[in-house]
Amino acid sequence: MIGNMTLGQSFSGCIGYCLEDKINLSEEQKMELSINENLQHKDRAEVIHYNNCFGTVSELASQFNEVRKLSSRVEKPVMHISLRFAPGESLSKDQLVEIAQACAAEFKFDQNQYVCALHKDTREQHIHIVANRVGYDGKAVNLTNNYRRMANFCRQMEKKYNLKEVLSPRKFLSKEQRLIPRHDSRKERLKKDVRETLLQVTTYQAFEQKMKALGYKVLKGRGISFIDDKKVKIKGSEVGFSLSKIERILELRQKVEMVPKEEKMRAKMIQEYQPRPGLTAYQKLIEQTYMSAQFEQLQQSAFFKLQDELFKILFEPQQGEQQSQSLDPHWLMELKRKKKKQQRHRL
């Protein structure tokens, strides 16, 4: 579960975003996206809870603005909270309301005006809460340490509702927790897509077209980066596929394709050899001895060496990649800062 909080000045704009459809989509586009993605883009928002307020977008904005006048010192009275759940997790509306109410209690705006809406236009279930920081007593909600409090709140809800547990932002973790390797599903998915695509193509142009068909935007310069459907940019080197590595794999794939079909079939037969049924023990021994000699010859062939190198590059992490996965860069930065402080004290 991931929580995000932002502050603003316009109630009408924030409430409109949370309770209405996306303004940049026409009715035809909403219908087309709903069919293609099997999601609900038309009437995407469903209000599941009102607190000390009620009505349409304009009516809610008017009610919120009347209360904000009770405190002229608050420059940003709009509090917008989004709570997103992991892929595959689905909570009932009653549970979502309970989480929204728990969030309001945690941040002390449970007596203020707020509205909660469920969005249905994404695969991950998520809710939006728009709250008035100004209460009926004219006092504003205190948001000191709100990022840390939001992280702690999400961890509590994960345990209470048996949700997938997520590590909090690194700066809120202990030194021991910072050493725990993080599983990044987005990077894992990109790594899998790049590898499977490279097994299907022999040219960079075909590789880029396949990646675009999977929903990625490919940026090629001195290196290579990929932007997914959530507009998240990831360098190829971050998932073990730098531009030079991709080019080397494509070069090997081209050489493999140039090997005569008869040689490939012979290599496949040797590699997949199984003793024939019905043979005597002596016949099996003779056949296995012959096939062992054939396999030794195959290992010395250019085709086998190409396949072996290709397999190692595709599936075996390089030494640098193994180290980058086991060491926490943030922890290393802290270690360097401590060393610098020690050096200054010595001087």
Automatic annotation (TrEMBL):
Residues 336-347 have a biased composition (Basic residues). InterPro entries: Endonuclease_MobA/VirD2. Residues 325-347 are annotated as: Disordered. Residues 41-163 form the MobA/VirD2-like nuclease domain. This is Relaxase.
